[in-house]
């Protein structure tokens, strides 16, 4: 595998893994459309863990969600998917570092190192898919509530954290695909040569055998 492709894939995977770590604690997963109105609470925003509000004086107040079981199903699923993305990205970074050709961790067996690097690509791809599903599912619920005229609760818009999550997913998928399709995952191929003796070779071998037998017969009784 080209070391440049390995370095680029590792860079993409590491950046995407870092962006996932930024996305999870970001408070702006969804933001209210009340910003700028002349009321006490000017902005409402939420993430997977808490709900916050900012009044007209700039004072922030946050309240964590009281119960996990009382949350909506998509929030619970998004939490699980984002945690799985962080874990997968961690394994992906470690496996890619070990499987790179310039790394001494895996020894000199480049076939094994290629397989390890390919496994890192699988982890990066899994990280990207988990992040993409989590962020897209969360955004779909925001838009569904926003455009529903019969929805009685507070309507929100897509926050900046979701855009960071989408960018992270794209980078992780690109890095994983580069590693999966560029690494040497198979064993070393050996070219098989078939031997087909010619007629001259057969005659030469027969003549040599007769001469050997004749010599042995002459010297047997000396």
UniProtKB/TrEMBL annotation:
Membrane-topology descriptor? Multi-pass membrane protein
MF terms from GO for this chain are: structural molecule activity
Per UniProt, the keywords (alphabetical) are: Cell junction, Cell membrane, Membrane, Tight junction, Transmembrane, Transmembrane helix
Where does the record place a coiled coil?
none
Q: Name one GO biological process term.
A: bicellular tight junction assembly
List where the protein spans the membrane: 7-24, 80-100, 121-140, 160-181
Gene Ontology annotations for the cellular component aspect, listed alphabetically: bicellular tight junction; cell-cell junction; plasma membrane
Which Gene3D superfamilies does the record associate with it? 1.20.140.150
A family per Pfam? PMP22_Claudin
Q: Where in the cell is it found?
A: Cell junction, Tight junction; Cell membrane
Give the protein family: Belongs to the claudin family.
Reported function: Claudins function as major constituents of the tight junction complexes that regulate the permeability of epithelia.
Tell me what this protein is called.
Claudin
């Amino acid at each position: 595998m080209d070391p440049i492709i390995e370095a680029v894939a590792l860079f993409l995977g590491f950046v995407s893994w870092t962006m996932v770590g930024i996305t999870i604690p970001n408070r702006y997963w969804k933001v209210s459309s009340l910003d700028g109105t002349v009321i006490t609470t000017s902005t409402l925003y939420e993430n997977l863990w808490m709900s916050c509000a900012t009044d007209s004086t700039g004072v922030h107040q946050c309240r964590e969600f009281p119960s996990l079981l009382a949350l909506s199903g998509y929030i619970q699923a998004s939490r699980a998917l984002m945690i799985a993305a962080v874990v997968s990205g961690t394994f992906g970074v470690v496996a890619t570092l070990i499987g790179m050709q310039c790394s001494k961790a895996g020894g000199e067996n480049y076939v094994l190192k290629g397989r390890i690097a390919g496994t890192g690509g699988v982890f990066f791809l899994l990280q990207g898919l988990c992040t993409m599903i989590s962020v897209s599912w969360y955004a779909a619920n925001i838009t569904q509530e926003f455009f529903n005229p019969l929805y009685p609760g507070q309507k929100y818009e897509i926050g900046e954290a979701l855009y960071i999550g989408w960018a992270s997913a794209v980078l992780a998928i690109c890095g994983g695909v580069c590693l999966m399709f560029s690494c040497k995952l198979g064993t070393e191929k050996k070219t098989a040569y078939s031997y087909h003796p010619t007629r001259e070779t057969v005659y030469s071998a027969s003549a040599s055998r007769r001469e050997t037998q004749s010599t042995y017969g002459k010297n047997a009784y000396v």
